[in-house]
Amino acid sequence: GGTIRFEKVGFAYDPERQILRDVSFEVPAGKTVAIVGPSGAGKSTISRLLFRFYDVQSGRITIDGQDIRDVMQTSLRDAIGMVPQDTVLFNDSVRYNIRYGRWDATDAEVEAAAALAQIDGFIQDLPNGYDTEVGERGLKLSGGEKQRVAIARTILKGPPLLILDEATSALDSATEKDIQDALDRVSRGRTTIVIAHRLSTIVAADEILVLEAGEIVERGTHAALLAAD
Ligand code: ADP
Ligand code: ADP
């Protein structure tokens, strides 16, 4: 659960240049809202505000009615899972990277998360193909494979809120479809914000917001927006 609301949010990194203007939307508990728009529109800024890397300058953001300025940053980090654009992994096995932050997870739980993220055959490998302690062993993972590790870690962490930032951008189109299916499964029942450049990569959003130059210029279902294109 957890309903996220942006109420007339305004934000600027620099007073000379407004980045978000009166941005209002709601992600009802368990639903998925996608934010699409060109590079520089302010999409990543929205996720930075949710984590309170910065605080809003006007309006407010609430989770279940509580202004997030009253919520500790550490609590927000626990509550929000993020699959970033570029995943940086620890130079330890994939299994270690999946378990990171959930040290109590059983091997079976780690393997179930790995299976859901379609990590097959490289769970023992080192993401960068080498380890300063043990010497070379394993494969150098591709961007897509690293992203699957990030997805598996998020699945295992099981946060109530999720942000998927261009989560399939590092993948070729065949694996993109597989990962998209895994992400759809992960986001089911969690309050999810998907950030994407292209409408075509979003399949399971309940609502899509089009953000341009910091303003929501259009909103609707996937089908309605594709028809209007
Ligand atoms: P998007 O995710 O849609 O590509 P961003 O939210 O990353 O857009 O960025 C929106 C605008 O804010 C861009 O013009 C970007 O250059 C600017 N910006 C992003 N981060 C900072 C920052 N830390 N300081 C100043 N400007 C920033
Ligand atoms: P991306 O969304 O592409 O992963 P970022 O969110 O870090 O990358 O930045 C988005 C845009 O904001 C990029 O164009 C980047 O150059 C710009 N940007 C990031 N940080 C700053 C900053 N501190 N000052 C100005 N522009 C920034």
TrEMBL record:
Native species: Hansschlegelia plantiphila
Family named by the database record: Belongs to the ABC transporter superfamily.
Parent-record interval covered: 360 to 588 of 637
Occurrences of domain ABC transporter (ranges): 4-229
Localization annotation: Cell membrane
Superkingdom, natural source: Bacteria
Protein name in the entry: ABC transporter ATP-binding protein/permease
